[in-house]
Amino acid sequence: MSNMMPGSAPWRPTSFGSPIAMVALSLAFLALGWWANEQAKVVRATDVWAYNALAAMALLVGVLFLPFAGAGFYRVIHNRRALKR
């Protein structure tokens, strides 16, 4: 029976795939921000603003993804423990 049907049990996600993907994406954004910040030191003066903007946005997005990835890991671990009882 589908979990979307009335009266069915709630779906409890137990896969680590989504939280791991979120951590990987967060690390990729942090790496992109670090790379852009390092490149801003060696590019032409007219292009520095673009690299600084890329670094700021990538670092911000990377940092903001981390709490959601942590919450995803917590939810999966909690659901896995609940199913073992």
Give the helices and strands as they follow along the chain.
Answer: HH
Number of strands: 0
- The fraction of residues assigned to DSSP E strands is under 5%
Give the overall average pLDDT: 88
Rg, alpha carbons = 20 Å
Low-pLDDT runs of 5+ residues are: none
Specify the overall morphology: elongated
Helix content: over 70%
Give me a quick take on this structure:
The chain is mainly α and 85 residues long. 71% of the residues lie in helices and 0% in strands.
Describe the structure in your own words.
By secondary structure, this protein is mainly alpha-helical. Helices cover 71% and strands 0% of the residues. It is built from 2 helices and no strands. It starts with 16 loop residues before the first helix and ends with a helix. The mean pLDDT is 88.
Write the layout of secondary structure elements.
Layout (H helix, E strand, L loop, with lengths): L16 H23 L8 H37 L1
Helix pairs in contact: 1-2
